[in-house]
Each structure stands twice: as structure tokens, then as C-alpha cells.
Amino acid sequence: MTRFALQFGKTQSGLTYVERPTVFGLCMRSDREIAIVRIGRDAEIEYDLPGGGVEAAEDEAAALMREFQEETGLTVWPNQVIGRAGQYWIARGEPRNNLATFYEVELSADDGEPTEPDHALLWLSPAEALVKVRHEAHAWAILHWLRARKAASTKRP
Question: Number of structural domains, the chain?
């Protein structure tokens, strides 16, 4: 079983977790908000960073751009890798280990609507997003990104 240096979530005894390469992005707007996807309707609502599975015929950048378009209607360009982390979880009854690469992305165009019927784009402050996202790996990526931005801003003359 592949494991990243950072592994979040817990396994349940007797279950086999399928490894799934995934990619997610942090997209900032106006230096105060990041893109978050609200998934579901009514009482079954969850929050994630935009992104998802990497298909066999695509690389991470292509998967990230496709997933952003499908889930948010945004056109983005991956700038740099924030980090990598695994997340154990159970999706629709299937135990998974999402092996995720997190990218900082640049917003190229805000020209569409999500094509995923139960997805909606939200713009939240990073602090709001930290407490809403369902996966610990996503919260880690947001926090890691914020700390890197803070460190970079203190180094500027």
C-alpha cells in the first residue's frame, strides 16, 4: 500500500482501501477568499477543495483543470505544488485512500457554471474553509498554503 509522508484519516479493520491518485487546487480571489466546492443538497452537504481523480489518460495538470471546470465553472492554471497527502475515507461505500497532490492555481476565467449537478462554487475566507472542509488533508493543505504565503510576505523588502 502506498503511503505519503502525511497520511490522514483512519482505516477500519477488515476493509481494503483502494488507492486513488487525486489532485486538488487552492484558487484565491481578491487576496481574501478561496474557491470551495459545496457538494450535495439539503442535509447531506459537504465541502471540499475543487478537484478529484486523475484519469488514466491524463496528467495532474490536465485532471486539475478538468475537475475545476466541472465542479466550479472556473478555468484555472496550476502554478505550483503545495504538497502531497493521503486521506483514508469511504466514498459511497468504497474504502479509498486518496493520494492527493495539492496545487496553488491561478484563475484564468470565471466563465461558466459547474457541470456536476450537485456541486456549487463558494468563495470563503481561508479561516472559514478550514473549518468547513470534510477531509483533514484539505484542511492541512489550506493551512500549509497560508503559512507559506505568510513566510513569503515577510521576506519581501
Answer: 1
